[in-house]
């Protein structure tokens, strides 16, 4: 998910036109690696119904496997997401990509439930290291290649690689699973090759952090909610939770809903729906970049409030078009609302504590990614998928109303 850049390290400077060109090429190589890693994180998404059909997994077990990924991301964000500011970007990116490659190897080695859980946990650990580091590396490479230039290229490319990559992985995996003879192996083989290429590409990219003679004493990323506007921080955190709740829905149980409730078993279709949702989020984040945070928050809340009920109508009526439209609108709302949350927290926090403020935001957001999805999985053990989604929609609408009230109180203060 989209993560802002907050580099506290001293960036290395290019010396001469040839060095600047190297940074320009490095920008695109890191973007490719970033996109590949984020795409790999959603390769299992359209494959979950195949695991369910072959091994008898329930929707609940699918959400548990997905939650292992979110746990890995949170652990990594807290323990390693900030370390590249001290040791350099490449020293974090290359091991993180290697973790993604290890995850692919685990998926290929065995498809039993314990291995799937470990593979998703390892993938989450890698992604937690990559998101902050790759975004910072892109920003610094862009700044050296185009000193004094607009940040627009960096912002568009980083968003496309991050959010767009998540959708791309599901789309590619869905198409491969639909048209190859070994759908539970080929997608991982393809991405294993791409991850190897990404490791080589990052290794050839210029470093942008100057080595320090004395490195700071290691400590986990600090988290704090005390940043001068507690109501605004709580509002932004709640917005992050609700935004990621929708993202978690589409990267865990939505493909199963498409196959079961809507009776469309195509893996390519499942991947295309996830791609449409995250593609809509990425485009919306880019197009609304110049809007103020309050306006983004209102647009995001409205789109989510319209999109998720429309999606639910599609499930009640077994209407694929309504499900897809609702999903895309909800994805747009989630992308814009989370962008507003990040902007709000970044603006209120003092520079020295901005990392702590955003770490807290992302911790709560990733709880939103996993907890509601697991809740839906638990509910489907007792009720139908449609009923579980009805409960989810009702709770989400209540949370959205609460977020709106909190933002209003924060602005009033």
What sort of overall outline do the alpha carbons produce when their principal axes are compared?
globular
How many DSSP-defined strands? 0
Mean pLDDT across all amino acids: 87
Residue share in helix: over 70%
Q: How much of the residues is beta strand, in percent?
A: under 5%
Computed over alpha carbons, the radius of gyration is: 20 Å
CATH superfamily membership of the largest domain, which one? MFS general substrate transporter like domains
Look at the structure and give the CATH class of the largest domain: Mainly Alpha
Description:
By secondary structure, the protein is mainly alpha-helical. The protein folds into two domains: 16-209, MFS general substrate transporter like domains (Growth Hormone, Chain: A, Up-down Bundle); 224-413, Up-down Bundle (Growth Hormone, Chain: A). It contains 15 helices and no strands. It is globular, with a radius of gyration of 20 Å. The two termini are 30 Å apart.
